[in-house]
Design brief:
The structure is a single chain. With about 375 residues, this protein is an alpha/beta fold. The protein contains 14 helices and eight strands. The protein has an eight-stranded parallel beta barrel, surrounded by five helices. Helix 7 (about 145-155) links the parallel strand 5 and strand 6. Helix 13 packs antiparallel against helix 14. It is elongated and about 85 Å long. The N and C termini lie far apart (about 55 Å). The structure holds phosphoenolpyruvate (PEP) and manganese (II) ion. Phosphoenolpyruvate (PEP) binds next to helix 5.
């Protein structure tokens, strides 16, 4: 994807880490006013106000959002807090209404990101419009779907882009409402340098306890902001009541977080440079060892070819896997890491040897 504009260049006076707060859903003008007043009283003014106007509900019958009327109440936010407002759009009709009502930033929800038809429909409605769009990760841990939605926006000319990490649904892991899978947002930042990812701890945790912990982890990993659902009376909220926090709790959370400085913004210290040089040197050694190891693997491959043996031998693989994993654990490496590393090395070995069998002249029996 071609370069896009980062949050600081959206022209809205925003910066990373970007703090977004506001209710899951707009309910009434009084509710919006109470939330804004609570934020003012606690002196916790987010950089941007979030509000759901159309709510994608898993089953019909729950509150499906107040609709266009709620967008009129955004004047209340502008009057009290004077900050930009963001809302979720799920189809072309929503886009049209949001633009008509001068919403500052749009976001695409997790249930929409999974559906390329819906994402494309939204993209077409935004062709030629200059508005920032944030794309939540899809419900399932599929990096391509997440990237695809960002690409569809970019392709119609939306160049003010950010991603939102709201976790992934997991039928088995009940610790979270949506499992964080931290490798996903980090991988997105790796493949698209400069792509900012805002963490949404509210939808990850699904309850109030734990929002601070997830927020802190997001900052530790170097994510670029937080979106925290905030309501003056969370217990009586019309949607996501369990996970919303009061403006006071929001302030406590934000005051407790140890915000880190992104390394890119700092000149690395001499100590960091020294340590990195040591790592560079060890990586060179690792590569030399790997080169030697694969040279031996090729000799084994040759032997197998000459003797008409199969490449894969399950008892040997089991023995290698178990003994190396145990050795790794003793060296303070995690079991998961050891297994992934060994699978990766073994797969490469098997592929090389099979290639030898395929490409070398057949050996007569
Ligand atoms: C929301 O932000 O209220 C929402 C519906 O989120 P998600 O799309 O992440 O489920
Ligand atoms: Mn919500």
């Amino acid at each position: 994807m071609k370069p896009h504009k980062q949050i600081k260049d959206w022209g809205l006076g925003l910066n990373s880490p970007l703090i977004i707060a506001g209710p899951c859903s707009a309910e009434s003008p009084e509710q919006i006013e109470n939330i804004c007043k609570g934020m003012l009283e606690e002196n916790v003014i987010p950089s941007m106000f979030r509000v759901g106007i159309w709510k994608p509900r898993t089953r019909p019958g729950s509150f499906e959002g107040i609709g266009e009327e709620g967008l009129k109440w955004m004047e209340i936010v502008r009057h009290h807090l004077n900050i930009p407002v963001t809302t979720e759009v799920g189809n072309a009709g929503h886009v049209e209404i949001a633009l008509k009502n001068k919403v500052d930033v749009l976001w695409i929800g997790a249930r929409t990101t999974v559906n390329p038809f819906a994402v494309q429909e939204i993209a077409e409605a935004l062709r030629g419009v200059d508005i920032p769009v944030m794309v939540k990760n899809p419900m399932n841990p599929d990096l391509d779907l997440w990237m695809g939605a960002l690409e569809r926006m970019h392709a119609v000319g939306i160049d003010k882009l950010a991603a939102i990490h709201r976790g992934f649904s997991d039928a088995y892991d009940k610790r979270f409402r949506n499992k964080p899978n931290w490798s996903m947002p980090i991988h997105l930042k790796r493949v698209w340098q400069g792509m900012e990812v805002i963490n949404d701890p509210s939808h990850i945790v699904g309850k109030r306890d734990g929002i601070l912990e997830i927020s802190q982890r997001a900052m530790n990993f170097g994510l670029d902001g937080l979106m925290i659902e905030t309501h003056h009376d969370p217990d009586n909220a019309w949607s996501d009541a369990k996970q919303q926090v009061t403006p006071r709790a929001l302030k406590e959370i934000l005051n407790s977080i140890d915000f880190k400085t992104p390394l890119e913004q700092q000149k690395p210290s001499e100590r960091l440079n020294d340590l990195r040089r040591a790592v560079d040197h060890m990586d060179d050694q690792l590569l030399d060892i790997l080169q030697e190891r694969f040279a031996v693997i090729d000799q084994i491959g040759e032997h197998k070819r000459e003797n008409h043996l199969t490449v894969f031998q399950s008892d040997r693989w089991k023995e290698v896997m178990e003994s190396r994993t145990q050795k790794g654990i003793q060296k303070n490496l995690s079991e998961k890491f050891m297994k992934e590393l060994l699978y990766c090395i073994h797969e490469e070995s098997v592929k090389r040897q099979e290639k030898q069998l395929r490409e070398a002249a057949p050996v007569k029996k």
